[in-house]
From TrEMBL, chain A:
Gene3D superfamilies: ATP12 ATPase (1.10.3580.10), ATP12-like (3.30.2180.10)
Protein name per Swiss-Prot or TrEMBL: ATP synthase mitochondrial F1 complex assembly factor 2
InterPro entries the record matches: ATP12_ATP_synth-F1-assembly, ATP12_ATP_synth-F1-assembly_N, ATP12_ortho_dom_sf
Keywords from the UniProt entry: Chaperone, Membrane, Mitochondrion, Mitochondrion inner membrane, Transit peptide
Bilayer topology: Peripheral membrane protein
Chief location category: mitochondrion
GO biological process, one term: mitochondrial proton-transporting ATP synthase complex assembly
Species classification: Eukaryota, Metazoa, Chordata, Craniata, Vertebrata
Family per record: Belongs to the ATP12 family.
Pfam family, one: ATP12
A GO term from the CC aspect: mitochondrial inner membrane
Highest taxon, organism lineage: Eukaryota
Function: Plays a role in the assembly of the F1 component of the mitochondrial ATP synthase (ATPase).
Length: 286, 121
């Protein structure tokens, strides 16, 4: 009997042997699915440095930070690098990965574990438009209907004016009919974002469950708090009616705010390129 | 929709968050330097005077509004992260105890085999 158990153990050991060659996809899935949520802090200082190609890297003590996929962690601009370094520096005795949203977003953009290209991401985002939160209305209770009309209609009108599209709202179970022209306009607009910004944008859309609110926030029409409030409108209505449960409602709201803010910041930092143009008078003074 | 907070309050808020995150050495961090630089550069909480208009020609600078929105977003990120972490520490489950702790609850200790178990290398 003992010999049988020993044979089983050796078989088990072979499967987990690290020398086995696996496909990259499997390795990615393993690294990203068996995610550790916490780890002890193993470094004292965090600093940023500029590497080759003008990309910025994060240094923990003397070691360079790497993504879960094994690549070197590089960001295209200094601001994002500073923000990520601040995240790493903010960790105390343990590293809490679930609070390091910018780092997670950078890792996703660098590794692309689901191996998607821009077109697939844009299609996924547009598919969300058909089930957009802002377009789904209820018929009753009356207070909620009024609230939805007063809060969501202005945002809908804004986005319809801004992009010259029509997106209706409906209270049927099938949702609104989005015309093809609308989708084409949005597709063209989303195509102007680079891959990193699209990663961030898709993250925000998934968090807020609404393309309309995400575009409103990215175009700086709404602040993060406003967008989160509009996304959780029905929950807020029920909270006002039945009361607030701190360990569920507040916890969710702050987590949603943190993630949405991180996503918005990620999109803005990845898509901007700032240049300094000196005007003549300042040149003469300086 | 409510307007955004004035830039001074946003700046103070960000600095408070940085101090809460890093302790008294927050003034040495690159984040502090960058934030202060940006706020000084984009400083025009008052409408520009006539002389400013002729020199710089800025009236409602779009970059300034963008920077203001971005600073608001960053403040929201830091503040909500801190609150979320506090709520997590307060309410989130601690998870299972380790085997050593469980044995210790009843006053026992786990057996150790100095040479390693038979199949371990």
């Amino acid at each position: 009997m003992f010999r049988g158990i020993a044979r089983l153990q050796s078989q088990f050991g072979n499967i987990l042997s690290p020398n086995k060659v696996r496909s990259p996809h499997f390795r990615f899935a393993l690294k990203y699915s068996t995610a550790i949520t916490e780890r002890k802090r193993f470094y004292q200082d965090v600093s940023i440095s500029q590497g080759e190609g003008g990309l910025y890297e994060i240094n923990l003590d003397r070691k360079k930070l790497k993504t879960p996929g094994g690549k070197l962690f590089t960001v295209p601009n200094e601001v994002l690098a500073i923000a990520v370094a601040t995240e790493w520096d903010a960790q105390r005795d343990t590293l809490k990965f679930y609070t390091m949203h910018l780092t997670t977003l950078c890792n996703t953009a660098l590794d692309n574990p689901t191996q998607r290209n821009k077109e697939q991401m844009i299609n996924a985002a547009l598919k969300f438009l058909e089930t957009d939160t802002v377009c789904y209305r209820v018929d009753e209770p009356h207070g909620l209907v009024e609230l939805q009309k007063n809060e969501w209609d202005p945002v809908l009108h804004w986005i319809e004016n801004r992009y010259n599209v029509t997106i209706g709202s409906s209270s049927s179970i099938l949702g609104p009919e989005i015309p093809e022209a609308t989708k084409d306009t949005f597709r063209q607009h989303l195509n102007s974002y680079n891959f990193w910004s699209l990663t961030g944008l898709e993250f925000v859309i998934t968090q807020l469950k609404s393309v309309v609110l995400s575009m409103g926030m990215i175009d700086r029409h709404l602040s993060v708090e406003q967008a989160v409030l509009l996304s959780r409108l029905e929950e807020e209505y029920q909270i006002q009616h039945w009361g607030n449960v701190e360990w569920a409602h507040d916890y969710d709201m702050y987590e949603l705010r943190a993630r949405t803010a991180a996503g918005a910041l990620f999109v803005h930092l990845s898509s901007e390129n700032s240049t300094v143009k000196r005007k003549l008078l300042q040149d003469r003074e300086g | 929709m409510a307007a955004l907070l004035p830039p001074l309050r946003v700046c103070r808020g960000i600095l408070k968050e940085l101090r809460a995150m890093q302790g008294p050495t927050y003034k040495l961090s690159p984040a502090y330097n960058y934030v202060m630089d940006q706020f000084r550069k984009n400083k025009a909480s008052l409408p520009p005077t006539a002389s400013q208009l002729t020199v710089t020609g800025q009236m409602y600078c779009r970059a300034q509004q963008e920077a203001h929105h971005d600073s608001h977003t960053y403040l929201c990120l830091l503040a909500s992260n801190r609150t979320h972490l506090a709520l997590h520490k307060l309410y989130h489950g601690k998870g299972d105890r380790s085997r050593e702790e469980v044995a210790g609850l009843v006053g026992l200790r786990l057996p150790t085999q100095p040479g390693g178990k038979g199949w371990e290398k």
